[in-house]
Design brief:
Blueprint lengths: L2 H9 L4 H15 L8 E2 L24 E9 L3 H12 L5 E4 L8 H4 L11 H4 L3 H4 L10 H14 L6 E2 L4 E7 L4 E6 L4 E9 L9 E2 L10 E4 L5 H4 L14 E5 L3 H13 L2 E6 L5 E2 L8 H4 L6 H13 L12 H11 L11 H26 L3 H6 L12 E2 L3 H4 L5 E5 L7 E2 L3 E4 L2 E4 L2 E4 L9 H5 L2 E3 L6 H4 L18 E3 L11 H21 L5 E3 L1 H14 L1 H7 L26 H14 L5 E3 L1
Parallel strand pairs: 2-3, 2-7, 3-4, 5-19, 7-20, 9-18, 10-11, 10-18, 11-14, 12-13
Antiparallel strand pairs: 1-8, 5-6, 6-7, 15-16, 16-17, 21-22
Helix pairs in contact: 3-18, 12-13
Protein name: NAD(P)/FAD-dependent oxidoreductase
Cofactor: FAD
Organism: Rhodopseudomonas palustris
Length: 602
Amino acid sequence: MSEAAVLQRALDDLDIEALRRKYLDERAKRLNPKGNSQYIEVKGEFSRFIDDPYIEAPLVRDAVDETVSALVIGGGFGGLLAAAELHKIGVTDIRIVEKAGDFGGTWYWNRYPGAQCDIESYIYMPLLEETGYIPTEKYAHAAELFAHARRIGEHYDLYPRTLFQTQIVELRWDETDSCWLATTDRGDRIRAQWVLSASGPLNRPKLPGIPGIETFKGHTFHTSRWDYDYTGGDSRGGMTKLADKRVAIIGTGATAIQCVPYTARDARHLYVVQRTPSTVDLRGNRPTDFDWIKTLQPGWQRERMDNFNIFVSGMVAPVDMVQDGWTDLFRDLVTSWMPEDPRAVPPEEMARLTEIADFRKGNKIRARIDAVVKDKATAEGLKPWYGMLCKRPTFNDDYLEAFNRPNVTLIDTQGRSLDRITETGIVFDGVEYPVDCIIFATGFESGTNYTRRAAMEIYGRNGKRLTDQFTPRPRTLHGFFTDGFPNFFMLGLSQNAFKPNITDMLAEQAEHLCALIAAARSEGKTRIEPNSEAVDAWIETIREKSKARRQFLATCTPGYYGGEGDLDQGLLIETYADGSIAFSELLRTWRAAGDRSGLEVH
């Protein structure tokens, strides 16, 4: 097919100018000059929203005073992967500190009904081959994910080396002894040569600053602290205690997409309060095919992870092993029309074809809403009008269908949020809706300082605070190290590359950092720190490469990817814009050079 024919097919049924205007109009409705400050910090009278409801009994123990080789902060998949890699390089004298009552991180806290991974479990659940486990379905539910985190902890004998229900409050570098001293809220004092921090980029719940939020007399909780004592049931539903309750769920992001169908089935009435609709495509969950399992060869999980990453990076491979909504999305957005040699297409034409592909995919998403949702006004309200990658895409087979139930009402605020909350209900556009319970599906802090999200202060050489070091924005080398903070390594999304499969990203980071520690140990070296010139150069690289991403996110409806309209606070703004495959190659080349450029190792 000629290029002209391909373009004509892409243009079918598209009114480009009308769509551009619609996207801009919908964005304008949602711009809030307050940015991230429109949310309430969860503290004081709202501190119950971060309390741990899953602990059967508070832990009682003596304070620990010890010296270890490595301290791992966080017991989610990032911390578990760091501990596993330390174990592989022979560093078993470690201490893990985790504020929750068990391993799991995201999957310890998120037990809301319908909670699942949105990346297929065969590549999302780490260390499957190492632990000898096969997930029961393509998209595992929360209980299975939580159980797998515990499985990893048991496999590497990490439970005896972990302090649960414990929060590090301060981390301070001791120049005399060349080690870190961590103090906790339980009076512990832990000295460690190496610190790997995996506290997670999205871990601290946030609440919307709706007037009157503190006055509500009914029941409230955040989805990351789901109150089954109030609702009954468990993460698979059966919430019989909601049978006589009028419930409001505030928020329509990835969490609400999963918990709305279950709450709709069990509540007397459900009000879904929407500021901005999500893109919702098919998920297609299914049980694991055990005939397929019999065909797997050693290394299958790594191969499958890499194959997925190729497709979601806008490239192609001979076979799509995963074949899910993610690979379908990037096929529609990129590979379905991209010529074999993209360099042959002028940049202006590439931008135009990219926009057309995005509009076509958006039309498919909106057409599905029309096909599923019976009430036309509700269907219109559920339609997203923004670029497909402005927000994390969602996949669910039951969310849209829930709005066909007579006991479900969409309150589409058109980006304005609620007018206020009263003692007995919620108010929008002058109409009060009486409710017994408000559930906040409002996500987690993003764009705030690293130390605030980690709930600890970190003092490096000469007492410098990491809060100051990362104000107004982070300064790192490769997203892992920062000057003035020796032997302090950060896992997670920072000035490095984003992978939709977060656990794959964390696994690569843990392997990279532990390889550096192993090399230093083999050479009798005890200290790793970047020099300021290398950090400055990396920041310049990140910001130069991020220009195109900034331009794109500046056109998006507000969300945490773009800092709620304040681009400098966006989660993805300072990531490595050339993508994860290019970043992985950069790290491989950097390691192969052998000189550890930019690091002072001694």
